[in-house]
Design goal:
This protein is an alpha+beta fold and about 270 residues long. Helices cover about 40% and strands about 25% of the residues. The chain starts with a helix and ends with a strand.
Length: about 270
């Protein structure tokens, strides 16, 4: 039996000799195996490299199609908005009411064509007493404008809304028992409804001395009103303005933009 114990002890110490060393009664782990150089087999290195490259490619593709694409689209939209705002202002081509109030619908259409304007005719063919025209910006086609108006200005992006609003105006002629015309447009340059009214007054050529009333109407619009003579026909006029965002809620458009209306009525 003693020989058997001696043999077991011998095997035990022989087998652990490579992993520990003994100092007195204390056995320490031998750290030398940890200091051996470690190298991945060549095949595994290639596989690992392929995995890393694939991960990098997938990551770059994901960033490009999400984060970077969103950044590009935002930059393009901001650039388009800035470009649209530099186009000819709507007020520059708005007709003077004193020049068209006595004209028939076909005569007004002919004047727009003679001026080289592109317009979208939204008149109801079954209602001869009303005409609705949209004078379009020079770089917007009738088809594109029709799609935007059908969608609704308030549902467009800032870049899209500015494309249709800058350089355009709306004209409605109502002849149901009387003659009344109104032209409406967005003003992106004045920054104040009162100034927008003054600019429209000057553009229309109305005499400030004919102003009979001004201030704020029941709807909260800044306005001025008065009368004018159109080749012997006495007419009334009213110019009103309000912040554009009260008319169209489009995020991203200039906050100080205004919406202006000019109405003329034969008395």
């Amino acid at each position: 039996m003693a020989d058997l114990h001696s043999l077991v002890d011998h095997i035990y110490y022989e087998n652990r000799r490579d992993y520990t060393h003994v100092e007195g009664d204390v056995a320490y782990l031998d750290g030398s195996p940890l200091r051996r150089p470690f190298s991945m087999p060549r095949t595994q290195r290639i596989i690992a490299l392929v995995i890393v490259v694939a991960a990098v490619v997938i990551g770059l593709w994901f960033l490009n199609s999400t984060v970077f694409q969103a950044m590009r689209e935002t930059a393009q939209a901001e650039e388009a908005l800035a470009t649209n705002l530099t186009r000819q202002a709507s007020i520059e081509t708005v007709p003077q009411m004193s020049q068209i109030i006595a004209l028939g619908d076909d005569d007004i259409r002919a004047r727009l064509q003679e001026a080289g304007y592109t317009y979208y005719d939204a008149s109801d063919p079954d209602d001869p007493t009303s005409m609705v025209l949209y004078k379009l910006p020079s770089d917007v086609s009738v088809e594109e404008a029709a799609g935007m108006y059908a969608k609704g200005i308030g549902n467009l992006s800032a870049a899209q809304a500015s494309k249709i609003l800058v350089g355009s105006w709306y004209l409605n002629a109502d002849r149901n028992g009387w003659t009344s015309m109104v032209v409406r447009y967005a003003d992106f340059s004045t920054g104040d409804p009162e100034i927008a009214v003054q600019n429209a007054l000057a553009k229309q050529g109305f005499d400030p001395q004919t102003i009979t009333e001004s201030g704020e109407d029941d709807s909260g619009n800044t306005f001025s009103s008065g009368t004018f003579d159109a080749d012997g026909t006495m007419c009334s006029w009213k110019i009103s303005a309000l912040p554009l965002d009260e008319m169209y809620s489009v995020s991203g458009l200039p906050e100080d933009a205004c919406y202006v209306g000019v109405r003329a009525t034969i008395l």
